[in-house]
Write a structure and sequence with these properties.
The chain is 34% helix and 17% strand. By secondary structure, the chain is α/β, with parallel strands linked by helices.
Length: 229
């Protein structure tokens, strides 16, 4: 299977205001656009390029053969920033493609509420608390983490089919969201979802690597040290 790089979207207004977003569909903030641009340039400096031409990667370069995004605008805008920067002025016609399964977790009744209300609404026995985030488990209408794992496994199978004609050392980029990105990581490495929620924070525009040659405890490739919800 190809190497899969996974990025979370840049900051949106809900992140900035401490609001639980889920499927809410607001755009990036100025900071969110800057986060995506900064990480894209870090990738460019590290030798990443986006090209769908099918040419072999020059020595020391990593070619992203495709960039896929969640349909939510905060992820799509982030993905387009990555694509524009990583084309590095080339005339390549490659465009960001949408994958519906990259959408964020459905937050159910929690969508639009302050992050500070999670414990009061859900109860301490229905959250998983970490140093940075309180994760609600199963409020009304919300996808559960086991359901996200099932969706992530389905997506991995779909990606395997989409990329079956690419060389095994090829790379792609997925732009998604905090909760689903972590469950995608858990599904790929067959790790308990509870352990992944505790293992690391997935900040805005940060990039993870899913690869048969990468150890599961070496999550981050590029970090921003942002701790939005």
């Amino acid at each position: 299977m190809v190497n899969i790089y996974v990025s979370r979207h840049g900051q949106d207004a809900d992140n900035a205001n401490g609001i639980l977003n889920g499927h809410r569909n607001g755009p990036l903030t100025d900071l969110g656009r800057q986060q995506a641009t900064d990480v894209a340039h870090k990738m460019l400096d590290a030798g990443f390029r986006f090209s769908t031409s099918g040419n072999d990667a020059p020595e020391g370069k990593t070619i992203l053969s495709a960039i896929y995004s969640s349909p939510l605008v905060r992820a799509l805008h982030t993905a387009r920033i990555f694509a524009d920067v990583l084309k590095d002025g080339a005339s390549d016609e490659g465009k960001v493609e949408l994958l519906d399964d990259l959408i964020e977790r459905d937050f159910g009744i929690m969508a639009g509420l302050p992050t500070s209300s999670i414990t009061a609404i859900c109860g301490e026995d229905k959250i998983l608390a970490t140093d940075t985030i309180n994760y609600f488990l199963d409020p009304e209408g919300a996808e559960t983490f086991p359901q996200l794992i099932d969706r992530a496994k389905r997506l991995v199978t779909h990606i395997d089919e989409l990329t079956k004609d690419l060389p095994s050392d090829s790379s792609i980029l997925l732009v998604t969201h905090g909760d689903f990105g972590k469950m995608l990581y858990a599904a790929y490495y067959d790790i308990l979802w509870e352990d992944v929620l505790r293992q690391f924070h997935f900040g805005n525009s940060e990039v993870l690597l899913l690869s048969k040659d990468s150890f599961s405890d070496k999550a981050h490739v590029f970090e921003t040290q942002q701790f939005n919800a």
